[in-house]
Amino acid sequence: MKVRKLIFPQQMEIINHQPLILAAGFFDGLHLGHQNVIGTAIRLARIKGLPAGVLTFDRHPSVVFGPQKGANYQYLSAPKRKLELFRNLGVDIVYIAQFDREFSQLTPPEFVDKFLMSLHLDTLVAGFDWTFGPKDLATMKQLKILAANRFDIVEIPKLQLAGEKISSTNVKKYLAQHQIFQANLFLGYNYQNSGPVVHGRAIGRTLGFPTANVAVAADQLLPALGVYVTRILVDDCWYPAMTQIGRNLTFNQGQNPVTVEANILNFQQDIYGQNVRLEWLQYLRGEIAFANKQQLIAQLQQDQLATRKYFEKK
Ligand SMILES: Cc1cc2nc3c(=O)[nH]c(=O)nc-3n(C[C@H](O)[C@H](O)[C@H](O)COP(=O)(O)O)c2cc1C
Ligand SMILES: Nc1ncnc2c1ncn2[C@@H]1O[C@H](COP(=O)(O)OP(=O)(O)OP(=O)(O)O)[C@@H](O)[C@H]1O
């Protein structure tokens, strides 16, 4: 899979390849709706014997425009993970347009004439609600008019589950409400976070439950605080684990920063410094400020039983 960064207008002239089937969207999370859009582009590309491309942006448009302006946006799939998901789907080429002021101020006709036309499109595939500028002007209906006699448009109708649109916004909402099953259902895979294992305060092992503290980068969205059944990928091998996202309320009067700590079942290796992935499977409970260590240990034993049960059923 090729990856090209596009900075408009400087880097547009380097594009010179055969006609392309292009799926367009931001695609945060690559949920089932996105998979349908990109999957359609890929199938069409294979039929026509052309490459299948994806057009995305280097940051979420709301970082430039919306209420989150200038904020640290948290992604379901931060840049590296997004590329991995595109690759898994079988995309041939990814165009990442730099979403800066200049690019964002293109009018709808300019976006088509100056930007899309230089990508040498055979067909553009996008969802029914894709916009490429102001919501009321840059609609799919308008795109069909602007593209007439130049490239084809395939519009993908709304994909819903139980009356709800499969969307990044809904997946984020579920993760914020501990609804892991719903989030994973909409994604079509189990939600993940990743990062290196860093040193904690080494309290876990004194409880009989050593934990791998995973330093998840700030641009990755984490599920809401709480305790979860997870799987963890260490050295290409998945292990059952129970993981807390929380402040270790029992210690230091809850003044600790939020950490992600995984107790891996039946595991004794030293994995400091290694990159791991956590896959979120089921919400168990909220974090509790216990009166003493013994109560915390008793609860951790309960959590371990629940975790074992989850994996026995699988
Ligand atoms: C599955 C799991 C559940 C946990 N639940 C709680 C909890 O409810 N309350 C709490 O204060 N700490 C909880 N902890 C955090 C422990 O206090 C934590 O493992 C300990 O502080 C170790 O920190 P360290 O890695 O910095 O040594 C939990 C940890 C795990 C792995
Ligand atoms: N449920 C869906 N059905 C059909 N097309 C979809 C669906 N969800 C997204 N798309 C399309 O996929 C592309 C990427 O969409 P976008 O990144 O805006 O996703 P989204 O999940 O709708 O995001 P958000 O929740 O932030 O609005 C667009 O072409 C969009 O129209």
Automatic annotation (TrEMBL):
EC class of the enzyme, as a word: transferase
Alphabetical keyword list: ATP-binding, FAD, Flavoprotein, FMN, Kinase, Multifunctional enzyme, Nucleotide-binding, Nucleotidyltransferase, Transferase
Pfam family, one: FAD_syn
Single GO MF descriptor: riboflavin kinase activity
SUPFAM superfamilies attached to this UniProt entry: Nucleotidylyl transferase, Riboflavin kinase-like
EC number(s) given by UniProt: 2.7.1.26, 2.7.7.2
Riboflavin kinase domain sequence ranges: 186-312
An example Gene Ontology biological process: FMN biosynthetic process
The keyword ATP-binding is assigned to this record: yes
Catalyzed reactions per annotation: FMN + ATP + H(+) = FAD + diphosphate; riboflavin + ATP = FMN + ADP + H(+)
Pathway: Cofactor biosynthesis; FAD biosynthesis; FAD from FMN: step 1/1; Cofactor biosynthesis; FMN biosynthesis; FMN from riboflavin (ATP route): step 1/1
UniProt similarity note: Belongs to the ribF family.
Protein name: Riboflavin biosynthesis protein
